[in-house]
Amino acid sequence: MTEQIDQALSKQYEAGFVSDIESETFESGLNEDIIRRISAMKEEPEWMLEWRLKAYQTFLEMDDPDWAHVNFPKIDFQKISYYSAPKSMKDKPKSLDEVDPELLRTYEKLGIPLYEQEMLAGVAVDAVFDSVSVVTTFREKLEEAGVIFCPISEAVHKYPDLIKKYIGSVVPRSDNYFAALNSAVFTDGSFVFIPKGVRCPMELSTYFRINEQNTGQFERTLIIAEEGSHVSYLEGCTAPQRDENQLHAAVVELVAMDNAKIKYSTVQNWYPGDEQGRGGIYNFVTKRGICHTNAHISWTQVETGSSITWKYPSCVLKGDNSVGEFYSVALTRGAQQADTGTKMIHLGKNTRSTIIAKGISAKNSNNAYRGLVQMGPKADNARNFTQCDSLLIGDKCGAHTFPYIESRNPSAIVEHEATTSKVSDEQLFLCQQRGLDPEKAVSMIVNGFCKEVFKELPMEFAVEAGKLLEISLEGSVG
Amino acid sequence: MSQWLEQVIAQAERQGAPVSWREADYASSLDALKNTPWPTRKTEAWRNTSLTPIEAKKLLSDGVSTASTQIPVIAQLDSIDIEFVNSTLVTDLAQFNLPAGVDIVALENISEQQASSFNTIKPEKHLFGLVNDALATAGVWVNVADDVEFHTPIRFIHHVQDGSENHTRILVNIGRNAKATIIEQGEGHVDSVNTSFSEYDVKAKGELHHYRFAMFTDKTLHAGGCHFKLAESSYLNSTLVGFGSALSRLDTDLIYTGEHANADINALYLLAEGENFDLQTTIEHAVPNCTTTENVRGIVGDKAKANFNGRIHIHRDAQKTLAELNNRNLLLSRRGQINTKPELEIYADDVKCAHGATIAEIDEQALYYLLSRGISRSQALILLNFGFIQELINDIPLTPVREWLTELLSGRFAKMEVK
Amino acid sequence: MLSINNLTAKVEDKTIIKGLNLEVKPGEVHAIMGPNGAGKSTLGYVLSGREGYEVEGGSATLNNNDLLDMDIEERAREGLFLAFQYPVEIPGVSNMEFMKESVNAIREQRGEDALSAAEFLKIAKDACKQVQLPLDFLKRGVNEGFSGGEKKRNEIMQMILLKPTLCILDESDSGLDVDALQVVANGVNSQRDANRSFIVVTHYQRLLDYIKPDFVHILADGKIVKSGDASLALEVEKEGYAFLGKGYEEANA
Questions:
Q1: Cβ contact B353:B263 at 8 Å
Q2: Mind telling me how many Å the CA of B370 is from chain A's nearest CA?
Q3: What are the C-alpha distances in Å from B314 to residues B120, B353, C178, C224?
Q4: pLDDT at A323
């Protein structure tokens, strides 16, 4: 049965097309001059440039991390282009009618129409193409509620005080190698501000697309939820099928003030590379949120793409009674490698965290959960529950669990459980005997395995995530 | 590199290999030692344990007596006792009346062939294992021939004296279908440095009952290891007990080389005052159809710090492996600290592996039950806390050891402050 | 002996006991019956002082001492014994060790000397035999791996050893077959005397065939709504809780 599964494991990546768009792309290379040029392209104020240059100095002093359970040749940062934007975006189109139709077609093909009347009701989208934001929909409607949702490059101009106050406040420039790189060269991303007491009237979503060859995407997202506000945010990502690896190093910072709630969902479907491991996105992402008193941050991620995934969406539970959650499905196949998990740092009293991580490995892939649960000396009565389950499909893949548990408080309780299982011949036989083809059977079993996580996604996306998993697994069974 | 390690290397170069069959191996260990960077907090294997207490130490080797001292008694235990003092074997091995098929010989007196598994079971990755390679001149070889069942426990006693260094080595061969019980007992609290490493080669259908008591406290620095190789259908039952000192570390490795072998490992640590104890276990499932059950429990009070790292590695094709690791901890004090990392690395799909780790408080329901029977809160907490480790002690097959340990641990526990 | 006056108590913001009155004199056996959710188990927990069960008003005294003012273990030492419906398992703590601690704590309160290990072993063995548990149950962890019936018998064994003045049996009959029921009942009956009182909480009349009550009370919605002699239990057995109104009948169907 395993052989049958293996034989038919052929890849299908639906978002692998290339858009024919004339772009302005920087020559490859990383140096101070490039950073100055990025800053100039964005017409940034001096303080932002200085901030970038300091980050670059930090980056130069750091070593690349080697602790993750992934293998890849050293990245040559001089071979990457750090800025690429469609030429048509240079004139800053005022409305969608002025945007290059080829760009709009790209998003349409990806199932993300940017005309508001065609969109999923109740979802505002920021579309980021290589290094620039193409359009942000429903802005007026959101402004009525006092919600700011715009490209971060625009926020640097319009809301300098907020940016100065919060950028790097959750993920400092020196946090890690890739965060330092991002801080130096970030190009675009989304900025969200929810004022005090406001429940954001619609889902916010950013769609990231890498198109240009040999470029990296370095976006930065900052979400600030003031006291008592609520927001649900979703990001999606795709890239064309290419033989070379491309680098994506993003930073996401969340600030949840007292009683605020942020729900952050990701469906990550970057190009995963081919069966032999050629091509694919190197996805090195730092995501972290800080929770003040009674605040709540929930991370949900469905990771199916990228040749290498290196990300640990985390919560710093600083305020008393704050809550952190991490729900993850990571699926690896072909030669994909994932090292993903979370950190829950309990500082305040009565803080709670839940971690549900589901890893599915197929073919020659490797899938690791890496997590840290830390109970600080003042985290009285803090609680954590962690459940890590691995599902192996075939006997050439790997599934790994590396949980770090550290407690310094006698009243804190930490519980960690991990199990591993396979799609058994008996399960397949039963499904087949009831008339299901094996592919459907596996997809059903996998979907069941992931149920606890899918139910955390906003409804529109839960369906999409299920389908995505189905496409990814297509041909994984014979 | 640390000042202490420089002296270790210098001394090793001065003295050379203790026996001719060790020459090649000695040179390669020394080489590895020179090329191993001194661990820092960034070194994953030493992430939570500081080597500061040993770093700047002077090698303590001169002028310490090697006279045998009072051997710690385990009541009712009829055992063959072998004692090391200050890196020296002080027991006359010829005195024992051993049955045919059982040999206990000093390492320097065995043949190259008899020593064939020396340093093949202990992985090279252990820094203090390399130190032991370089400095352990005294050692003992135990051989239990095929089909021989030896029921008398063989007990190794590591004595610690003020201002001494103790580096000792044990090599045990359990033949096909043979059976033996080995106890490694180390105690002491005075200023000293101790490394003791043991290797166990358990042949097909062999059975080993093993105990390691790393009961070093206070100023006694300790880094040791026990390493097992299990052949087809063999069985290991191992009990590890740790107290803590300024630096105490125990590395345990187990590799399965034959199918249908099983291991039951129970480990417990009970730490008070400012003690540190670091337990690292690695189980290598290199072949199919083997079963590991590992239970680790710890209680940490006062300013003590426990670190546990339990790794289970299922190699490609090690199908039908069953491996379970459970680590439970109680933290009794606000100043104490517990770090645990149960790791799974799995490359075979038809396996059943699970691990669990908890750091928790005493169960509220159990506490209420005891209180409702009139038992005072403080006494109830002692009963429940001690019951938590008593569960593992109860699994010990050797009755005198079980009783000795119950008394020893409850005495130690009674002195701890229970909140 | 026990005097409960207008007792009101809540669990997690929900008031369960709503102005309950009960007077138990030395040597009396009171049965408390009632539909599910009436507050039968809650009463035992409130009297024993379980955390999370908060007294809102009223009083309860045992031998003229304010019960509600005492810690859980003080109430036990005062002579209150609660036989649990679902006794908790405590692995690692042996039954023997647990009961010896308990017996000696209560003896100390009464100004008696602590029993030596040998003295205790003797009475424990006798009690163990009396409830027909194999002697190795003394060595096993408290309730660890015991069947439902064995746990109930273990509770009665503790009662025999602790010699309480007031015993509350919380559904000690649930899940027992007739033989086990008889063992439990015999254990209880052997302890009946002029100075010891019992509150037998049960859902069914069956247990009362074996433990004859002096009084039967019907507890509904947190109050005692009807009291009588043993015949009241038989009435309930036949008629159900219909007299309480339609809602109860359905809840109990």
A1: no
A2: 20
A3: 20, 9, 52, 63
A4: 98
Mean pLDDT over all residues of chain C? 89
pLDDT by residue (tens digit) across C181-230? Answer: 888 899 899 999 999 999 999 888 888 989 999 999 999 989 999 999 98
CATH topology of domain C2-251: Rossmann fold (3.40.50)
- Residues 6 or more apart whose Cβ sits within 8 Å of residue C74: none
Contact B379 C92 (CB under 8 A): no
Q: Which two tokens stand for residue A330?
A: 């990571």
Residue A294, amino acid: N
Mean pLDDT, residues A112-133 taken together: 72
Q: Residues A303-342, buried b or exposed e (16+ Cβ, 10 A)?
A: bbbbbbbbbbbbbbbbbbbbbbbbbbbbbbbbbbbbbbbb
Distance (Å, whole) CA A184 – CA A35? 7
DSSP string, B24-92: HHHHHHHHHHHHSPPP-TTSGGGTT---HHHHTPPP--TT------PPPP-TT---EEEEEETTEE-S-
Check: CB of residue B159 under 8 Å from CB of residue B125.
no
3-class SS of residue A6: helix
Would you call B357 exposed, middle or buried from its count of C-beta atoms within 10 A (0-12, 13-18, 19+)?
Answer: buried
A81 vs A213: CA distance, rounded Å: 9
Domain boundaries, chain B: 63-413
* Chain B residues with CB-CB distance to C70 below 8 A: none
Q: Express each pLDDT in A290-342 by its tens digit.
A: 999 999 999 999 998 889 999 999 999 999 999 999 999 999 989 999 999 99
- Measured distance between the N- and C-terminal CA atoms of chain B, rounded to whole angstroms: 42
Q: How many CB atoms lie within 10 A of CB A68?
A: 19
B348 and A395 within 8 Å at the Cβ level: the answer is: yes
Q: Which of residues 123-142 of C touch B (CB under 8 A)?
A: 141-142
Complex ipTM over 0.90? yes
CA-nearest of A439, A419, A69, A421 to B349 is A421
Listed in sequence order, the residues at least 6 apart from B100 whose beta carbon sits closer than 8 Å to its beta carbon are: B145, B148
Q: Is there a contact between A407 and B359 if contact means CB atoms under 8 Å apart?
A: yes
Predicted structure pTM score: 0.88
CA distance linking residue C150 with residue C96, whole number of Å: 15
Per the DSSP assignment, residues forming a β-bridge with A49 are: none
Distance separating the N- and C-terminal Cα atoms of chain A? 8
Asked whether the predicted pLDDT for residue B71 surpasses 90, the reply is: no
The token pair that represents C162 in the structure block = 């602790």
B387 lies within 8 A of chain A by CB: no
